[in-house]
UniProtKB/TrEMBL annotation:
Its cofactor is [4Fe-4S] cluster. Belongs to the radical SAM superfamily. PqqE family. Pathway: Cofactor biosynthesis; pyrroloquinoline quinone biosynthesis. Residues 3-220 form the Radical SAM core domain. It comes from Rhodovulum kholense. This is PqqA peptide cyclase. It catalyses: [PQQ precursor protein] + S-adenosyl-L-methionine = E-Y cross-linked-[PQQ precursor protein] + 5'-deoxyadenosine + L-methionine + H(+). [4Fe-4S] cluster binds at residues 17, 21, 24. The gene is pqqE. Keywords: 4Fe-4S, Iron, Iron-sulfur, Metal-binding, Oxidoreductase, PQQ biosynthesis, S-adenosyl-L-methionine. Pfam families: Radical_SAM, SPASM. SMART domains: Elp3 (SM00729).
Length: 361
């Protein structure tokens, strides 16, 4: 197949983060500060990305605001011609810093929401005072005039707050809300019993989103990531493996998706050793599940194979033990019925103690 250039790059600037969310999708082994790429290295990657055809740069983590050079990094990305989006909890952003980011050319901010009140948000984020701080940052974002997307991560413990989360997005002047039901990768896998929504909650969320989309047309765009363990078809993960986006980890490893390192046997290149374009077009990990040639049944003969590209490779690995299997969320997967039963068991589990994310050094 002819390989298109990537549209988006996620730069995981750091794994350091003041929050301890139990649904963190970062790997169990976090990169330490002394192994992170420095400013000049990131600037070089941004230029390579722009040359490769990347249009949008998502600056993420961890918490990207823990990088002292964040403003400089934004300026470098803008100089390279990239559209810049900062994905943040808001912790570590003061008015002075936000104004500096504005002056450096930051285009957009995506603010995470752990709950719609301090009791919920501070408990889930494991950070006291975080909610009040976030509201203040949202106010400053509006004052300075950044376009804002609110990113509400929802699970069994806070899904009842979805209507209020949508209201908050409108009150904050956000143009978009991403309603993301928790996905179980990385650390989040440890918390399936505590966080798995019930089927009834998943259906109620579908209805809430449908109603709000109709009511708020022209006011707020609602992106929705459904509770996929309770779905019949998988999501098209990463827009298709090696098709639209790539991730760069804090130490410079280039991944087709953020959980790709959970797939044994894949060989990943580093920007420290190889040009980004070569990694995208010729890297073994990107080629492994690109397109449809790697598929077996039921995906190979399926009418949806270029719709969802077999779902999520990392989820197939985690749940079926085989990265080339159909995503077990799919109704055609031999693992589908067992997965739905497990999801129900997790959702109704008695023991639901949260295991908060351990911090990176
Ligand atoms: Fe998607 Fe494969 Fe299921 Fe078809 S069989 S819907 S391609 S996961
Ligand atoms: Fe890796 Fe979905 S997270 S393919």
């Amino acid at each position: 197949m002819s390989v298109p250039p990537p549209i988006a790059m996620l730069a995981e600037l750091t794994h350091r983060c003041p929050l301890a969310c139990p649904y963190c999708s970062n790997p169990l082994e976090l990169t330490r500060k002394d192994s992170e790429l420095d400013t000049a290295a990131w600037a070089g990657i941004f230029r390579q990305a722009a040359d490769l055809g990347v249009l949008q740069l998502h600056l993420s983590g961890g918490e990207p605001a823990t990088r002292r050079d964040l403003t400089e990094l934004v300026a470098e990305a803008r100089a390279a011609g990239l559209y810049t989006n900062l994905i943040t909890s808001g912790i570590g952003l003061t008015e002075k810093r936000l104004r500096a980011l504005d002056a450096a050319g930051l285009d957009h901010i995506q603010l995470s929401l752990q709950g719609t009140d301090a009791a919920m948000a501070d408990r889930i984020g494991g950070y006291r005072g975080g909610f009040d701080r976030k509201l203040e940052v949202a106010r400053l974002i509006g004052k300075i005039g950044f376009p804002l997307t609110l990113n509400a991560v929802l699970h069994r413990q806070n899904l009842h707050q979805l209507p209020r989360a949508i209201e908050m997005a409108v009150e904050m002047g956000a143009r978009r809300i991403e309603v993301a039901t928790v996905q179980f990768h990385g650390w989040a896998l440890k918390n399936r019993e505590a966080l798995m929504p019930t089927r009834a909650q998943a259906r109620a969320a579908d209805a809430t989103v449908a109603e709000a989309r109709a009511r708020l047309k022209g006011v707020l765009v609602i992106d929705y990531v459904r509770a996929d363990y309770h779905s019949d078809y998988p999501k098209r993960c990463m827009g298709g493996w090696g098709t639209t986006g790539l991730n760069v980890t804090p130490e410079g490893t280039v991944l087709p998706c953020h959980a790709a390192q959970t797939i044994p046997g894949l060989v990943f290149d580093s920007v420290r050793d190889r040009p980004l374009a070569e990694i995208w077009y010729e890297g073994a990990a990107f080629a492994a599940y690109r397109g449809t040639d790697w598929m077996r049944e039921p995906c190979a003969g399926c009418e949806r194979k270029t719709v969802d590209f077999g779902g999520c490779r990392c989820q197939a690995m985690a749940l079926a033990g085989d990265p080339a299997a159909a995503d077990p969320v799919c109704i055609k997967s031999p693992h589908h019925a067992a997965l739905q039963a497990r999801a129900e068991a997790f959702a109704t589990a008695e023991a639901s103690e949260i295991l908060w994310r351990a911090a990176a050094g």
